[in-house]
């Protein structure tokens, strides 16, 4: 092998931005029924649509939705599981599987019968398009209804409930046929009917908590008029309970972070829940999207569960022997399991394998890849291998990070390399270790990446997750700076060529970090710039998130101002790249525009790229290609190396004034005369009712015999 010398950042790479944007058709939420497997599949090369796929027993794979259709739910704006295979019967009473799904365009539920050309609606058309949404579907015990979370938007207010939707289609014309089972809480998740149909378990929580802060597992009796005798089985204001699954008519499995990590528990309809396998590792992924489950129950009574840190692996748990037996596989990052009681399907990946649909045989401990998201990937020699690091942060705190060094089979360059610190979104989320072509796009050109799981990240227990509480913009920034300094001290990273980038919450971290002296530039993908503005314009699901991340209002109003990058422009002297979708309901476009205006007013070099039709996370191929090439060109401009993409012009003047799409959210709009309008925390009961006690009345609950 011949070795060539080329400046870092200018290494010749076969991985183009187009390859990154088109190359991976990400699967999600697989389901299995017998020999057939379904999943959602994201198609960036088809204008970012999501279709539904089915794999038959003979291995034939079918694209179920016509090209004009896209599946997807906007519940909580971040969505989650949007479909469910359902049993149907033809004239000969032969069971055939159809599929119920939420259409991204109008958010109604539809049924696609086996062999049908077009779906038919199951839910009524609302007065305003896409204002009634459905997610996290589960099949009723009698097989005639789908139970799901419904989210209704009316005159700026949001209301959620769990409803029962008839598969007959009556609900499309008769709204009353869609029956509300339970309401009253702000948020719902995981509707789960018992095998005998007599009880319904579900998860609920209220503002200002997020689902990783405190949730309640509730159980009630199912009647024609809804649920009765509801009570809290487990959970509360300081315990996150997730994913109830019935083992039998009177026993549930669930995940709870009561011991500090999400561990597995068994709970009857009465009495205390029992920990199954106490361990200082996670047995459930964070609940950022509805319908994602990390364990399932087999007909044999055993459980297949995922466990680990940010990269979870599969094992089989036997409740009779209390043994947890690992399954040997080269795929190291697993998620989203489902079972029909015999076989298990999941999404799995590794450092050199993009996410794929797999089937696991619990008896044979074997794993079969059913569908790869990338049919023709780049030469593995160009793919970086993540190095898992545990670094020392401020005051000796632990900082977790994954380092991806520059990687090329034929090129070397003497001396330390430019490095980009990645701050993940969330901020209560994490960076995994599976193959990511975006990272390979940079590392194959000689630019290193360090993906930081800063304080507040999931995967390392509740205490680590809570490090960001009241400290967002402080702890995350300090941890990212610590990771950069650690690489500099080792002689790996060039201290003069350090960048930081991040999406959403990570964009806030990046913009906050460039107020210091560690980084030579920063990149924000739809990042938060104005915290007070965010409280007024963001969506309902995260509208009270800042209560825990920064503090409650109006008491912490000055902290909001002090930590907002828009108010710290005077501290920024390095170039900044801002990338923003103009249809973003989470971080509205005015945030990036006002940041660019502030930077231009001071003569700071910057660029603002806005994308029509894109929301919170770019889905279309054009936006993904343009943003990635702009980011590379930005590093080339700042760090002084030639690139193989169009150059990016940086401005030192403000963008032209325009009428904002969103309501103005300047600090001036939050004067003393308006502080009464600032959000005030809603409170949950400080004491969670004991199991077997009705949470509303305090009286003993009486489950039906």
From TrEMBL:
Q: Where is this region: Disordered?
A: 650-705
Residue ranges annotated for the Peptidase S9 prolyl oligopeptidase catalytic domain, each copy included: 438-640
Q: Which GO terms describe its molecular function?
A: serine-type peptidase activity
Lineage top rank: taxon: Bacteria
Annotated Pfam families: Peptidase_S9
Q: Name one GO biological process term.
A: proteolysis
* Ranges of compositional bias, category Acidic residues: 665-679
Please state what the protein is called.
Prolyl oligopeptidase family protein
Q: Which organism is it from?
A: Nocardiopsis alba (strain ATCC BAA-2165 / BE74)
Q: What is the lineage of its organism?
A: Bacteria, Bacillati, Actinomycetota, Actinomycetes, Streptosporangiales
